[in-house]
Write a structure and sequence with these properties.
This protein is mostly helical. It contains nine helices and no strands.
């Protein structure tokens, strides 16, 4: 029996190692499921808030997300927590769009155009308007939001400064004006005319940002 003991010890260690791998894999899957549920809830909340405001019943948000109300409350204990979460998700989405536009476009002007158009296509302006009353509370509840917002402003400031240096943007336009373009993008009618309407609105708005010497006379 002694000659089998090394094998038994080795087998025992291997079995323990396999068990640890299984536990680790299960834990990772649970974390992935939790992240997925959280993302579903935030996306549903952003859509519902955009459509109906921030006072809709929590059950309606859970239904839109395809999760139970209990799951929603485990992720977000109350409405304020959900509003803070959606505010962060919204600002992070803006930061990601601005960073990608700044990094990938050949000119700052094209970066600005891309950012504004993508915000319109994703109806982020309507989301901004819906979340505006909650932003002040959210900033106090989650100080990290101030940093995310500062990142968005900084990226827009870089793009506007470079576009002005290139002669592509009016000198009186600042990053806050690009933000204002978003807040007026509240056209939410979704039918066959929506893409054409958005495209026309974007062309009119972006044309207004271009240098127009004749208007200064």
């Amino acid at each position: 029996m002694d000659e089998f003991r090394p094998f038994i010890r080795c087998y025992g260690k291997r079995k323990h190692f396999v068990h640890l791998l299984e536990v680790s894999s299960t834990a990772e899957q649970l974390r992935a499921d939790a992240r997925s549920n959280r993302d579903q809830i935030l996306n549903a909340a952003l859509a519902v808030f955009r459509e109906r405001g921030t006072e809709v019943p929590m059950k309606e948000i859970a239904d839109r997300a395809g999760v139970g109300v209990g799951t929603l409350y485990r992720r977000f204990p109350d409405r304020d927590a959900l509003l803070t979460g959606t505010a962060r998700a919204h600002l992070q989405r803006l930061a990601d769009l601005a960073a990608t536009a700044w990094r990938e476009e050949h000119t700052a002007w094209r970066g600005i155009c891309r950012f504004v158009r993508e915000c319109a296509e994703m109806q982020l302006g309507a989301q901004s308007s819906a979340l505006a009353p909650a932003y002040h509370r959210a900033m106090h509840a989650d100080p990290g939001l101030v940093e995310v917002r500062a990142t968005v402003v900084d990226l827009l400031a870089r793009m506007t400064a470079q576009a002005q240096a290139d002669g592509d943007l009016r000198p009186d336009i600042g990053p806050e004006d690009i933000g204002l373009l978003m807040t007026v993008q509240v056209y939410t009618r979704e039918d066959e005319s929506y893409p054409d309407a958005v495209d026309r609105i974007m062309r009119i708005m972006l044309d207004g940002l271009r240098p127009q010497p004749d208007l200064a006379r």
